Here is the input.
Amino acid sequence: MQTANLKAIGRMLLGVLLFSFMDAGLKRISTFYPPMQVTALRALSSLPFILLTLALGNHWRALRVHNHALYFVRIVLAIVMLVTFIYSVSVQGLTDTYAIYMSAPLMVAALSRIFLKEPVPVRRWIAIAVGMIGVLIALQPHGRGLLSLGGLAAAASAICYAVSILSIRVLGRTDSGYALVSWNLLGVAVLASVLAAPGWQPMVPAHAWILAMIGITGALGQYFLTRAFQLAPAATVTPFEYSALIWGLALDYFVFAITPSLHVLLGAAIVMTGGLYLIWDEHRPSGRRLNVRA
Here is the structure.
C-alpha cells in the first residue's frame, strides 16, 4: 500500500502540473469565447489524443462501463466545474482562483470519510488544515473576499470537483481509467457543444496552437489524475493538489505579468509546508503504526 500511495502521489503532482498549463491556455482564450464554448473546446481538443492512445494500445475493450447513470452525473458535474472555473480565471488571476479552488481537498477528505469510509489519520487532517490556513491567507489581501463573482465561481467549481472525485473512487472499483477518461471527455464534448451552439463564436486561426496545447495537457493531466485516485485513497492524494498554487503563482508572474502580493506568497509557503509534511509522512517507516482514524 505504501508503494501504491507514493506512485499515486507522483501521478497527482504530474497531473496538477499539466493541468496548470492547460488552465493558462483556458485563461488566454477565455477573453475571446463564452465559457460554455471554451468548455466544449477543452474537451474536443483532448479527444483526439485519447482516441490515439486507445487505438495504439488497442484498449477498446477497456471502455466497458457498469454504471451509466453515474457517468452521466460525472459529465454534468464536469461541465459545471469547467464553466465556473473558466469564468473565474477570465475575471481574475490563476492564483486568486487556485487559492479558493484549493479548498477542494478538504471537501474530498471529509466526504470520503463519510461516504466511502476511507481512513483519514488525524495527523493528515492537521496537515490539510494547515494548508487551508495558507489558502485563506493567500485569499484575504485582495479585498474582494469570497463574495466576488470570480470567487463564488471558483468555490462552485471546487464543490463540483470534490463530488466528481468521489465518483471516480466509486467507478474505479469496476471500470478502467480509459473508460473514466474517455467517456467523460466525450460526454462533455457533445453536451457542452450542444449547449454552446446558440452563442458559438467563430474560431480565430491564431488560437490553434493554444487549443493544441490545451488538448495535450488536458488529456495527459486527466489520465494521471484519474490513475492517482485509483491507486490510493482520496484523502492521501488530494492534498498534493496544493502544488497547483505554486504553478499558478509562476504562470501569473511570467505569462500574464501579474505580480503576486507578499501575503499570497506567505499563504503559498504555508500550503507547501502542509504538503511537504504529508510527503515526509508517507516515507517514514512508522507511518502505518500511527494510523489513527479521525
